[in-house]
Specification:
alpha/beta, Aspartate Aminotransferase, domain 1, binds pyridoxal-5'-phosphate, about 15% strand, globular, 3-stranded antiparallel beta sheet, about 375 residues, 14 helices
């Protein structure tokens, strides 16, 4: 298998850990264990009782039940926990696809949603969200892409990086199109619970037997360091993921599965705090974009915590993002990794004071692009963000 390099991950390796202001990540501000213990009623005794044993192949029963209750139909047999949704994507594609299979994938999108299929030897058809439509998904553009040869449809909505999503009636139509084709549906719902004035989309795995639906602790939950994700689907499909799991990760850690179980059980306690924070940052971003309409164009996102703006007069944002990382201590991700070099992925899930300061530094970098950039003073880091 030949995997392409992922420019997004290369960028994160270079700048994520070496900048103190994060305008680039796609998740909300992370929680500390102390905060989680308070919010999720986890006692020292609870933690002390955890044995660092193996966990069952499909995941610990407590976590599977919590996930089935929140996202599924209550049946834990239709849930498998995964090592981040990254493992879910890898398992599902390698279990269900072979060389020459045709897949339809949303574009722009998270790199592994197409690169894993490409490494297997699949032919990739892209369902392109067009900038001129504000990246609104166009079902009329999807329809002709799906043919009797389509083996799998791969979608992430709300979408990283654009923040685009579907209206509920479009979701129904989307599902009708895929269901009628009989193709597998891989639904990456990383941002399902993070919406901005748009209704939360229903769970497609409850309505289509050939759907495998992926979720993660990394985005709305602010817990990427647990490396816990999940896959919802029919038990016979989940069983097909096991042989690969047995050689790849065997199982997850009972410690992080326990934290994830508590987080899912009391999800609303975490989501309400970080959801409100993200909404306030989105208002800041909206005001900033209004105030600097001479510099920036964007479409406000319907979900997730990333936007995908352009800056006037900049056809390739990579140097700007490099300058921001090096001279302004700010992480911003160039759109080249998503096939749109004239854009940036701008994450707004972070620490609020930091976000405001980051936008100000971005303005200065944009205004002084042609002048030598000055290094700005740094402030203490109040929190870390998800990738
Ligand atoms: C849409 C999407 N899917 C999957 C992932 C993988 O995340 P994780 O493995 O942390 O769950 C990411 C990470 O950025 C993502 O944005």
């Amino acid at each position: 298998m030949k995997l392409r390099r992922a420019p997004l991950e290369d960028w994160m390796r270079d700048f994520y850990f070496d900048t103190s202001i994060d305008l680039g990540s796609s998740g909300v501000q992370c929680w500390t264990l102390a905060e989680l213990r308070g919010l999720l009623d986890i006692s020292h005794e609870d933690l002390d009782a955890i044995a660092f044993d193996d966990s069952p192949s499909y995941g610990g029963p407590g976590l599977r039940t919590a996930l089935a209750d929140r996202f599924g139909d209550g049946d834990p047999d239709r849930v498998m926990s995964t090592h981040g949704s990254t493992e879910g994507i890898f398992l599902v594609m390698n279990a269900l696809l072979g060389p020459g299979d045709e897949i339809v994938v949303i574009d722009p999108g998270y790199h592994s949603l197409w690169s894993v299929a490409e490494s297997i030897g699949c032919s990739i058809k892209r369902w392109r969200l067009r900038p001129e439509d504000g990246f609104t998904p166009d079902l009329d553009a999807l329809r002709p892409l799906i043919t009797p040869r389509t083996r799998m449809v791969v979608v992430n909505l709300p979408n990283n990086p654009t923040g685009a999503t579907l209206r509920p009636e479009q979701f129904d139509e989307f599902l009708d199109i895929v269901t009628a084709s009989g193709a597998y549906l891989v639904w990456d719902g990383a941002f399902t619970e993070l919406t901005h004035g748009t209704p939360q989309l229903p769970e497609p795995a409850l309505r289509y037997e050939r759907c495998l639906s992926l979720g993660t602790m990394s985005k709305a939950y602010g817990l990427p360091g647990t490396r816990v994700g999940w896959c919802l689907g029919a038990p016979d499909l989940l069983a097909r993921l096991l042989p690969l799991r047995d050689v790849l990760t065997i199982c997850l850690s009972p410690f992080t599965e326990y934290i994830a179980e508590r987080a899912v059980t009391h999800a609303d306690r975490l989501l309400s705090i970080r959801g409100a924070q993200t909404a306030r940052n989105l208002r800041r971003l909206t005001d900033w974009a209004d105030d600097h309409a001479d510099l920036v164009s964007w479409t406000p996102p319907g979900g997730g915590c990333t936007a995908f703006p352009t800056f006037h007069g900049i056809s390739d944002t990579e140097q700007l993002c490099r300058d921001l990382g090096r001279d302004y201590d700010v992480l911003l991700v160039p759109g080249s990794g998503f096939g749109h070099p004239d854009r940036v992925r701008l994450g707004f899930g972070g620490v609020e004071a930091e976000f405001t300061e980051g936008l100000d530094r971005l303005r200065r970098a944009l205004e002084t692009r042609t002048a030598p950039a000055r290094r700005t003073g740094t402030r203490p880091i109040e929190g870390a963000l998800a990738r």
